[in-house]
Amino acid sequence: MLHQRDYFEKMVNEPRNPSHWHALYLDKSVPFNPDAKAAFLYDSSTKSRQFLYPVAKVFARLSIVLMQLFKIFIPNLINAPRMLHKCLYWGMKYFITPEANFVILRHFYLGSEVLRFIKDNVEGAEDIPMNPLKPLSVNDVKDNLFLEHDLNLYNFIINLNHAIADKGLKIVKKDRPNYTAISEGPIPFSEFRDGWSNFIDLGTAIELFTPVYQFYLTDNDFWRATNSLQLDEVIGVYAATIMDCPEKLIALNNKHPMIPLPTAGAAFRLLLHGFSTEVLHAMLVQGKMGVLKSDDAHATID
Questions:
Q1: In three state form, how does the secondary structure of 163-224 look?
Q2: Cα Rg, the chain, nearest whole Å
Q3: φ and ψ at residue 261, rounded to 5 degrees
Q4: 123 to each of 171, 226, 246, 274, 280, how far by Cα in Å?
């Protein structure tokens, strides 16, 4: 069963024993899709997160360090992205919670919409090539989904800034941004498996997936992938400039990519990366809804 907003909205508060997760769900200080927030918080409240995560974290990070030492000598011995994504697919389908799968697939979907929003609001950037990733089921992971996502981020930034330099384009405030790329409704995902083995939470899964990711990729590919997690800051600045709301960037806190962080902490930064994408997309949805309400008000007056 996928737990979404109803789970927390129907929860009764016990004043002598309040729920940490209930309080966070009700808090609206940071924009966040209600269903995604509920899934994220429910997943974080599980026994897997409380007891399995600390143990998995130690062994996973030790594995990353040992693998890094190993790849000093043979950095390109293994390069098997297809096998990597088959492993990720099997892990996601049979071992992690429906809530974790929901949040993971949303990340790719929302990320594509955010990049398209930026492109649509930079005049003269129409020719920039895009490769939107909008998975609707765990099966889509097998199409090198994680690797393609990383490449999309880098290629978008490179192509956009080449266009800015070559054509004299600018990323500037838009009085009326184009929100066509931003969807405000639910994403039509296929039903997620919820068997007895689907008990591993998102944080634990990411810790375990990270050394697997490192094993199947070349050292350069893994290094690039971990550094891409800090590109939130760059994408966030682009979007905030267009919307003229730099104060909203306070929730995007994955550190600037010009100062790369150690690969051992990549799993935690991946959680922050997903969080930042959700917040940024929710901010864009709020902007779109504000424009739609304004249009409705003007139509009523007319």
A1: HHHHHCCCCCCCCCCCCCCCCCCCCCCCCCCCCCCCCECHHHHHHHHHHHHHHHCCHHHHHH
A2: 20
A3: -95, 160
A4: 8, 31, 21, 28, 21
Q: Sort 298 into a burial class: Cβ within 10 Å, 0-12 / 13-18 / 19+.
A: exposed
The pLDDT of residue 271 is: 93
- For residues 133 and 148, give the distance between their C-alpha atoms in angstroms, rounded to a whole number: 8
pLDDT at 156 (0 to 100): 96
Confirm whether 38 is domain-assigned. no
Name the nearest CA neighbour of 256 among 276, 284, 282. 276
Task: Please check whether residue 3 lies inside any domain of the structure.
Answer: no
| Distance of alpha carbon 107 from alpha carbon 16, whole angstroms | 36
Q: How far is CA 102 from the centre of its chain?
A: 11
Residue corresponding to tokens 């891409």: 228
CA atoms of 41 and 5, how far apart (whole Å): 10
Provide the pLDDT for residue 298: 58
* Token reading at 233: 């800051």
Greatest alpha-carbon pair distance for the chain in Å reads: 72
How high is the pLDDT of residue 112?
Answer: 97
Query: How far apart, in whole angstroms, are the C-alpha atoms of residue 81 and residue 148?
Result: 10
Q: Could you say which residues of the chain have pLDDT below 50?
A: none
| Residue 262, both tokens | 């150690």
Q: State how far the Cα of 271 lies from the Cα of 261, in Å rounded to an integer.
A: 15
pLDDT at 302: 56
Q: Is residue 16 part of a domain?
A: no
The tally of domains found in the chain comes to 1
**Which 8-state DSSP code applies to residue 49?**
I
Other Cβ atoms within 10 Å of 216 Cβ, number: 21
pLDDT at 279: 94
pLDDT recorded at residue 8: 96
Q: Which domain holds residue 121?
A: 43-296
Cα(208)–Cα(243) distance, integer angstroms: 37
Quick check: is 17 in a domain?
no
